[in-house]
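Per reviewer request, we include the raw input and output of the structure prediction for the construct analysed in the revised manuscript.
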Amino acid sequence: MKNVRIIPPKPKEHKKLRVAAYCRVSTSGPEQMRSLVIHPTTSKCEKVLPKLREGTSQYTLMVRRMKALQIAAALITRKLEGKCDA
């Protein structure tokens, strides 16, 4: 009879999530908000997310993409309202 050796799984390391957001607003008027692609893109991501299996790279990428889009939308809104310096 052969000996079976069980190898325990390596513990997963929890790394800090590093996210960078970039936004550039070319005009300061409300027409800029109307031309944003962020909100329709966010809606599409929200529709696709339930179809993805949690724990897969596609799921993680989609969650991070949605977070980045939310940050970008908030930055643009703040810029249009004159609440940020840049």
